[in-house]
Specification:
The complex is a heterodimer of chains A (279) and B (322). Chain A is an alpha/beta fold. Chain A has nine helices and eleven strands. Chain B has one domain: Alpha-Beta Complex (2-enoyl-CoA Hydratase, Chain A, domain 1). Classes of the chains: A alpha/beta (279), B alpha/beta (322).
Chain lengths: 279, 322
């Protein structure tokens, strides 16, 4: 085997080792394969911009609310002050917060996309994520577009305290209005989708899709294991487990995501009413 | 927020020295008479085992309360009690999280940590309230939703999300009261209302102080520090607009006098429901939406601000994240 497990002499900016099968993957090839391992289909995390490129029709994406950033409502300090933490994440990622939103067409269907990025403070949901998803839903309602939210988040952002918790109610309020207007909302869960994000908008899609082997659960596996004081079953809180228990609709490989979204939006979109059964 | 809803607060000095409104509600942090307690003291008071829990309050506030059981799907969750009672002769639907007052009772009630079926029972009662045009009163008192593997398998997250959704669109007046401990999403599932009130010594937080300490300071022993940082005490919640008013507790805390606590809650509820009953349902739902819509802390520069420089494509291509 030319690229054996655990050998360290590969420069990391050229090669990445797959955490599942140990295969050494050439970065260029990995990117071309949508960040999916060529050998074992392990889905690496995908950034928000790359995800948008994957889902939105070419050249159709127009970003909205790009400049929204977070205040420091609590004056929160743990090992570093919260504003410094935000600034570091902004510098590292080039984004203002853990989500990118915009309008686009997906398979020709006018949509609003909101895509989270785990790389920004664990994709945590604070006021900015709450506001941007709420605005995305309001925009979809105003323009009669479909809404797609791609989640990648550890949950609510601790550094914003109870204000972060309230974002759950705020987003759900906007989604409920969207639903009452008969507009489709598709939720896509990627690794990981947990805590307050799963316990709010991510679980409320008309259709919920998930990527293979993504961590999908309410409480952290360590908390759960600590609660019962024993080891958890294999595959616990993974997409396939959640699918088997009936809380998501499909596990979709990344290469098929766009196709499935386009089909679903096409079938559910309001303009398709006249094509439907006259019920 | 509440000013807009109930008009100018009529200040009247109430028995224990707070300058409260006519029904005894404290609408501003400056009106608190007692000196501020620390966040950690608030956590301990809110968790006090002798503190009045949902059924203690229901017994003192509502007449002829009948408990109604079961989610019609899986089982009856004892951590959430639901039913119909009368408030000054008028029927009200009540949903509350129930902790125990002794260790045995706590084990029976699962320490007030609901399972998904508990939230589904709550939702059944929300819909019942809407169907028969009865106001809904919720009493929040939980360390959080139960985090065990059975709860995960039965869809804890979905149950909470649906519960919040049901409340945001429920066409009937809702008053939510944070009675003791408001633990994260498991509390918010009962916490969406036209008016959200908190007991003077209640807490409401996105994560328990112990949980936050374990993650941020890598030691559960730093819970006191985390409690301070999270700003989870009732007066802090009032100043951030998360709750609309505080219900005063008897001197020393609610655990010292359950009857007086009950009287204060009843006075606040009667006043709020009287007012909400006169608001047309459409306005009620709009106001409820706007109430939560406004919460958050964001910085938005003027539209003419130049966009930040995008990361070059080659940097993005090299950024592989396992």
């Amino acid at each position: 085997m030319p690229f054996a497990r655990g050998r360290k002499e590969f420069p990391s900016h050229l090669w990445t080792q797959c955490p599942t099968c140990g295969e050494m993957l050439f970065n260029k090839q990995l990117v071309r394969n949508l960040n999916v391992c060529l050998k074992c289909d392990h889905h690496f995390k995908l950034g928000a911009r790359e995800r948008l490129e994957l889902i939105a029709d070419k050249g159709s994406f127009l970003e909205i609310d790009r400049e929204l950033s977070s205040g420091d409502p609590l004056g929160f300090v743990d090992s570093t002050p919260y504003p410094a933490r935000i600034l570091a994440a902004q510098t590292k990622s080039g984004e203002k917060d853990a989500i990118v939103c915009g309008t686009a067409t997906v398979g020709g269907v006018p949509s609003v996309l909101a895509v989270m990025d785990f790389d920004f403070i664990g994709g945590s949901m604070g006021s900015v994520v709450g506001e941007k998803i709420t605005r995305a839903a309001e925009r979809a309602l105003a323009d009669r577009r479909a809404l797609i939210v791609v989640s990648a988040s550890g949950g609510a952002r601790m550094q914003e305290g109870t204000l972060a918790l309230m974002q759950m109610a705020k987003i759900i309020g906007a989604l409920a209005r969207l639903g009452e207007a008969g507009l489709p909302f598709v939720s896509v869960l990627t690794d990981p989708t947990t805590g307050g994000v799963l316990a709010s908008f991510a679980s409320l899609g008309d259709v919920i899709l998930a990527e293979p082997d993504a961590l999908v659960g309410f409480s952290g596996a360590r908390v759960t294991a600590g609660t019962i004081g024993e080891k958890l079953p294999k595959g616990f809180q993974r997409s396939e487990f959640v699918l088997a228990h009936g809380f998501i609709d499909q596990v979709v490989p990344r290469s098929q995501l766009k196709e499935r979204l386009a089909f679903l939006l096409g079938a559910l979109r309001p303009a398709a009413r006249d094509l439907r059964w006259s019920l | 927020m509440l000013d807009r809803l109930i008009g100018a607060p009529a200040k009247a000095v109430e028995g224990n020295g707070h300058s409260a409104d006519a029904s005894g509600l404290i609408l501003s942090v400056n009106d608190l008479a007692t000196k501020k307690i620390t966040a950690w003291q608030a956590v301990q008071l809110a968790r006090d085992q002798k503190r009045p829990h949902a059924l203690d309050i229901i017994e003192r506030v509502f007449d002829r309360f009948q408990e109604l059981h079961g989610d019609r799907g899986f089982r009856d969750d004892p951590a959430i009690v639901t039913g119909i009672g009368e408030l000054d002769g008028r029927p009200v639907v009540v949903v509350g999280q129930q902790k125990g007052s002794s260790t045995e009772e706590n084990i029976e009630r699962n320490f007030g940590m609901p399972f998904p079926e508990g939230y589904r029972k709550a939702m059944r009662m929300y819909r019942l309230a809407a169907k028969f045009h009865l106001p809904l009163v919720t009493l929040v008192d939980t360390p959080g939703a139960y985090p065990g593997p059975e709860a995960e398998e039965r869809g804890q997250a979905e149950a909470i999300a649906k519960s919040i959704e049901t409340m945001t669109t429920l066409p009937t007046p809702i008053v939510a009261i944070i009675l003791g401990e408001g633990g994260s999403g498991g509390a918010l599932a009962l916490g969406v209302g036209d008016v959200v009130l908190a007991m003077q010594n209640a807490i409401y937080s996105v994560i328990s102080p112990e949980g936050a300490a374990a993650i941020l300071f890598r030691s559960a022993g730093e819970a006191e520090r985390a409690a301070n940082a999270l700003r989870l005490s009732a007066p802090e919640l009032l100043s951030m607009g998360i709750v609309d008013g505080l219900i005063p507790e008897p001197e020393g805390g609610a655990h010292l006098d359950h009857d007086a606590t009950g009287r204060n809650i009843k006075a606040a509820l009667v006043a709020q429901l009287d007012r909400l009953a006169r608001v047309p349902v459409g306005d009620l739902l709009t106001n409820r939406y706007e109430r939560f819509r406004a919460i958050g802390s964001i910085v938005e520069p003027a539209l003419d601000g130049s966009p930040p420089k995008a990361e070059p494509w080659w940097k993005r291509a090299l950024r592989i994240r396992p």
